[in-house]
Predict the 3D structure of the following.
Amino acid sequence: MHEPTALCRGCARTIPEIAGWSKSDDEDRIRLLNLLPQRRALLAAHGALATEPPRG
């Protein structure tokens, strides 16, 4: 987890979103999936994406 944003470095979801995924309906999942590109960009701006090497 990336503490400043509270997002997972791999999937860009919060802990409550990860925990509730299996109980979410399709509408909620689609809503969340639509947020991921912005969240991944935020993590990338922090140098915190799991696919990127950590900054300094």
The two ends are 18 Å apart (CA to CA).
